[in-house]
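Practice problem: predict the structure.
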Amino acid sequence: MLAALACCISLNANSQALARAKTHSFGIRENVSEVHAGGEIMLTVLADQIHVLKNRLISKTAMHYYSFTVTRGQSVLLASVEDAAGSDFWQVEYYDGGTWARQSAPKQTFSQLAPQSEILIRVSHRNDVPFAAQPYHIVFGSTPVLQKYEFQDEAYVNRIPTGHTEPSWFWTQGYTNGKLEALFTDSVGAPLKGATGRFVLNLEESRIVPVVEDVMSDENGKVSRLVTFDRCAGGHEARDYVSYYQGRNTWRRYYYVGGYTFINMLAENSSAASADQDIRLFGHICNQQLIKSVAG
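Answer:
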């Protein structure tokens, strides 16, 4: 593996952009690692997905190498994540045309790559600062693209009809839960494993703390999560409405207005992340009363 990782990786910025493939091939599904020189050198060939990597360097001379194969010509994201330990003690470099180049920005994207090319990076301790036995934290692999997401109504809920509330329509309605579903792909449309998203449901009007769910996509690029929250009390009175199940039934509902967002946590840039944050209105149903029923 050491010899394979030491090969030159060419990142030709002037190459032609790859046309989107109609079918998708996939690389290895599991990471493969080797450790050498008593832990001073670690070599890892990464699986075909996006990775959140967290590890420790055992000394100021230790080197951790990561190799990623661009199986479909998709764009690749390299990002340094600053956490409580900070990021001033380590550095990330990538191999470019025979030399090592320093990561130029906290988030860096490699694009217009030839299918089956490789990108090799290394993580090392900075020589000009004291040794810190803290973990480094980086993101490396296929750039995640959030294709769509949906927060579905609570199962079997009897929705308040459009025009009977203020505002007149809600994306989603429920008492105590709803189902979150999302789809992530890479830049050429192949399902992407390992993408992370954050769902936030604001229930301030219901006097309930916000619900925050961090999720990760599976091997099919999909997210599926049942999101639960407390039931509300009181609420605004909706206009009465009539249903026709086994007669004529007049219902009265009480509700509060909430809102939710879903964020691609590993978006290529801040504008892409912002686009994911459009607030969708949520109807938090507190109570339902049958006020009149006429047998049919």
